[in-house]
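Write out this protein's structure.
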Amino acid sequence: MLKIAMAQMEVVPGHPDVNTATILRFIEEARAKGADVVIFPEMAVPGYFLGDTWEQSAFLRDCESYGRDIIAASKDITVMFGNVAIDWQKKNNDGRVRKYNAFFIARDGELVQPDNMPYPYTIKTLMPNYREFDDTRHFFSLQKLARELGTTPSKLLSPVTLKIRGQRYRAGCLLCEDGWSDDYEFAPFELLEKEHLDFYVNISASPYTLGKNDKRNRVFGRQAREAGVPLFYVNCIGLQNNGKTVYTFDGSSTAYNEKGDVVRTLPEYEEALTVLPLAEMKDMAAEPESEEKDIAHIYRALHYGIRRFLENIHMKKIVIGISGGIDSAVAAALYAKVVGPENLLLVNMPSVFNSATTKGLSQELANNLGCQYMIIPIQESVDHTIKQLEETPMVNLGTGSETHLKVSSFVAENIQARDRSARVLAGAAAAFGGGFTCNANKAETTVGYSTLYGDQSGFLAALADLWKYQVYALAHYMNDVVYGREVVPQGIIDIVPSAELSSAQNVDEGKGDPIKYPYHDYLFRSFVERWQKATPEDVLEWYKAGTVEKNLGCEEGLVQKYFPTAADFISDLERWWNLFTGMAIAKRIQAPPILAVSRRAYGFDHREAQNGAYYTRRYRELKAELLAE
């Protein structure tokens, strides 16, 4: 009876030595458990998101060398693993050495060649070039190779015949995207389906995205059911990045039987190995579908991502500026779970505009967490800065004339934010021996509702891929489930969101941020996360049809509540669109790395150009029509 092991391992990007040691350890474990086959993830040796490290020939040679170590370790066991494959005699389209994203199979110290492949490995066919993926920048696809050889991918894409204990098994080998073919010109899975296979293997390096696992179970379950053979999906865990955006890899490796049922799922964010007898899978009971709420998955992604990010940069202590607001409170509760309250310093930095209410809530939060706490008032420092700017003469060296700067109330707000971050938090972090956080949420990040070199600063923006409503949901989840007690004070959850930078944002009078989160969260989300991104033209079409809330997914009646007239609605829309496509881009470029959880995170996942706001001809027609009514 053929026994197949799924090895869900942590892949450390750019460290083939570490990854190979993990693979060799898992091979021994699989052998000890009687497995005939052990499967590892895509790009298990080098990692996946490596930037232009792929252009280093020395690194590529190292990956080949470590690959040979894995092949040599395959005595009496079949080892399936992902690695970069190099044809040193050929070039990619950029003139650099030819590289393939490859699926290797080794047995008894030798590679097993797919039936029709010109190389002793399977080459990835479909190259994702959307969201965070940039495969065609570095890798040559099976489609390109087929054209080069004067044939078709269907002629090259072929099963691998395995000879194990006197029996032959035919395996269909796919690499990640090859199983997600809906929008491609052909489907590798369907091409292999004609080959009378015994099972499929999809090795993946698939970043976590909210809701992706449910969709994958639908797609891969259908594939297994229609083909009538089991399918093994093996994903990695770990943290990888492409500079500006940081991704968690959750694993969730899954075995599907020939009925399409999920019969084994490996845990999120944990290394694990499981062995399944191939012949018994059809009789295995389907695992119950998870009833966990989305926020539980988001919490695990954030906790794991923060922990691994800190470990990668060797940071053990954290400083957070807390205001008595929800974002900094949730950040504090998160980081306390990761580093421990003894390694967390919360700093409250009140000015004359901070109410006794929020100062008291900050103290209550710190008490609940049992962490380090400081109160450093900033008003004296802010006043001193303003005085210096206004009283120091500004000399025109060409004419010798002198003038003085005038600090407006708006500039004074920015000075407060910068004083808190650039002076107090940066200094406290250095003295405490750690780093300080950026606590921005996704709504604020969308429209640049933050201050450069002020509250936008920090080493990581862990909440910047969460909309405000998700931040509130996370507060409730941590109170109810993670801590099992009220850590984030109910008063912080209930209070109106406010930056408290002026008297116009007095929380005790119910005055807060200009962003109306119950509506704007969803409006901003339509700009970013819709696959067909919304523009002001789309939003005005919905407004004209009376379907804004339906299309955005927000609560009915909010448009009329916030915007009594068409002029009000259009003014609000243009205010935020101008910021989203204007100054906010410049701020996002300078923002800290963002930890991704959504289907479209800022950074490399949402690529932007600083071109300024644009309104289509149709938008201008709709605007004129609505304002004339």
